[in-house]
């Protein structure tokens, strides 16, 4: 089906906006360098660190094999001409180009900001890892029906969640936990919150990578207050562990099964997430991030923002609140609903950075407590 002229114009406009945004580090290098580095010199090892982290993330994404999927109906009724391997190879190539293209851009932009040049050794390492990843992922084009259908279902969930802006549906499902008495006895809410973290243990490596990314960002851009990196990184690290809280909020049956008040559930979940983020911050500090009152407060705010995100009401698609901004229709009401949670994080981080600690810390903690204990 051909695209309409309106769709084509939207794609062109979107592409122009993305291209303009991506060109900022390359066209406004001096201004950004002054904001991010200040008077501090760039570390000599920064280029290699960015290169290594970018290659690690790109390789991990490609080897996840998200390209190897197939519609079960297609497999049943139309998979007889032998074209499936060629189709999967094209998807693999596109996924590989996209991931390593993004990694190359990040490395190039960061190197430009930090004033690094890329010798032949680094370029060779990038090409070698990219080629090795492509070769390692190639056998996935011969995946069996069960794997193809499983990844198709995962892809369908992701597409549906993105279509309806339901970010919580993208959070990982839990794995079985060997803890027979997890939900028996006293303090059942605390046990439930701890069991949730244990059941999402597959997200722990991602949290570790985020801690390393925060430490790297702090080392590369010392002029930026580490509270920003800790707050944003802590929110992303803790969010996967709030998926069960979101299910509990959306399922009245599960909610009645817990048998505790909303405030107790939210406060306990926030307390457990704060403890988790304290351990996460310890890892970040061990990697070189400096500790401050603003940084510690940012983690408490991040935990409260995660709870606020997980316990928000379902999106009301009848309340789009469309308004014109610079000639572009923006669904302000929908964005306001989707931003329920991150808004607390952004507001408190701004307070921590523009106000004095004596005012910003108690105000941020008060806003976080109000968000968690709301009725």
Automatic annotation (TrEMBL):
Question: What is the taxonomic lineage of the source species?
Answer: Bacteria, Bacillati, Actinomycetota, Actinomycetes, Pseudonocardiales
**Coiled-coil parts of chain:** none
The organism of origin for this protein: Amycolatopsis bartoniae
Q: Does the keyword Transmembrane apply?
A: yes
Identify the keywords attached in UniProt to this record, alphabetized.
Membrane, Transmembrane, Transmembrane helix
Q: Which Pfam families match?
A: DUF6297 (PF19814)
Q: Where are the transmembrane segments?
A: 45-63, 93-117, 123-144, 204-221, 227-246, 267-287, 293-310, 317-338, 344-373
Could you identify this protein by its name? Answer: Uncharacterized protein
Give the domain of life: Bacteria
